[in-house]
């Protein structure tokens, strides 16, 4: 059995692939949302991908159906093998125990999210190491994403914009009239174009401090495709 990825539009579907003596391909989505494929021996990769692409919207519906029974943000166990997201990509967690505190780190290594820590059983400690890592990554990406979008709002807002981020319960972002923008730290887990959507949405609030028709018109002028991106964002944070 091998782990594969199917690129479907702007999304990636992870699946496991095995071969068996059978006539047709079997695709299954289990209640955890994991996708498994069993293909007839001898099927080429092109054939498998083609069939999967035809079923991609079904796979997505199945997964949404199962995941709708789970809490909105599935509780993490912080164990090796568990999925964690960063900029829209899924990484498996790998916990490695080390002797000294100076050898502790969180790093992406060969497609895995590796956490070296003294006590791999200490979930609170792992959670906090991961939180710090996400926070550092937010510092790296959020500001530069905002900077790259300022040009769009310049004709409508002249003031200074100050950015920060933290865990927000109900919003992706908040923008105050004084130009202070707060982003939800959770956004570091979604693809960059989704973060960009939230930033542009918030920037448009500097011109229209509501969700009026004029607000949506401005947003659509800057980002014609925003509806798809918003849908994708919501789908992402459900996982
Ligand atoms: Zn809004």
Quick synopsis:
This protein is an alpha/beta fold and 239 residues long. It is built from 6 helices and 11 strands.
Task: Walk me through what this model shows.
This protein folds into 2 domains: 66 residues, no CATH class; 104 residues, Metalloproteases ("zincins"), catalytic domain (Zincin-like, 2-Layer Sandwich). Helix content is 37%, strand content 27%. The chain has 6 helices and 11 strands. Strands 1-2-4-3 form a 4-stranded mixed sheet, with helices on one face. It has a 4-stranded mixed sheet with strand order 5-6-8-7, covered by helices on one side. A hairpin with a 2-residue loop joins strand 5 and strand 6. Zinc ion binds next to loops.
User: Which structural class fits the helix and strand makeup?
Assistant: alpha/beta
Order of helices and strands: EEEEHHEEEEHEEEHHH
Secondary structure: helix percent: 25-40%
The rounded distance between the terminal residues' Cα atoms is 24 Å
Bound molecules: zinc ion
Radius of gyration: 21 Å
What's the level 1 CATH class of the largest domain? Alpha Beta
Shape: flat
Total helices: the number is: 6
CATH superfamily of the largest domain: Metalloproteases ("zincins"), catalytic domain
Low-pLDDT ranges? none
Strand portion: 25-35%
Count of individual domains: 2
Strand element count: 11
In round numbers, the mean pLDDT is: 89
């Amino acid at each position: 059995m091998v782990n594969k990825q199917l690129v479907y539009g702007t999304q990636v579907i992870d699946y496991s692939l095995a071969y068996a003596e059978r006539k047709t391909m079997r695709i299954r989505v289990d209640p955890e949302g994991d996708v498994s494929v069993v293909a007839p021996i001898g099927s080429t990769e092109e054939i498998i991908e083609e069939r999967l692409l035809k079923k991609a919207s079904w796979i997505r519906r199945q997964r949404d159906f199962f995941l709708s029974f789970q809490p909105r943000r599935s509780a993490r166990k912080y164990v090796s093998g568990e999925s964690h997201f960063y900029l829209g990509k899924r990484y498996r967690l790998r916990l490695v125990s080390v002797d000294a505190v100076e050898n502790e780190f969180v790093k992406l290594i060969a497609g895995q999210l590796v956490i070296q820590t003294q006590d791999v059983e200490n979930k609170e400690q792992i959670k906090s190491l991961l939180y710090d890592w996400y926070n550092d990554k937010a510092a790296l990406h959020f500001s530069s994403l905002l900077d790259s979008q300022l040009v769009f709002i310049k004709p409508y807002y002249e003031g200074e914009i100050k950015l920060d981020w933290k865990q927000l319960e109900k919003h992706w972002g908040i923008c105050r009239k004084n130009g202070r923008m707060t982003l939800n730290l959770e956004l570091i887990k979604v693809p960059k174009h989704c973060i960009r959507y939230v930033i542009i949405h918030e920037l448009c609030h500097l011109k229209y401090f509501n969700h009026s028709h004029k607000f949506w018109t401005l947003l659509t002028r800057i980002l014609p495709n925003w509806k798809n991106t918003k849908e994708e964002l919501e789908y992402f944070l459900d996982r």
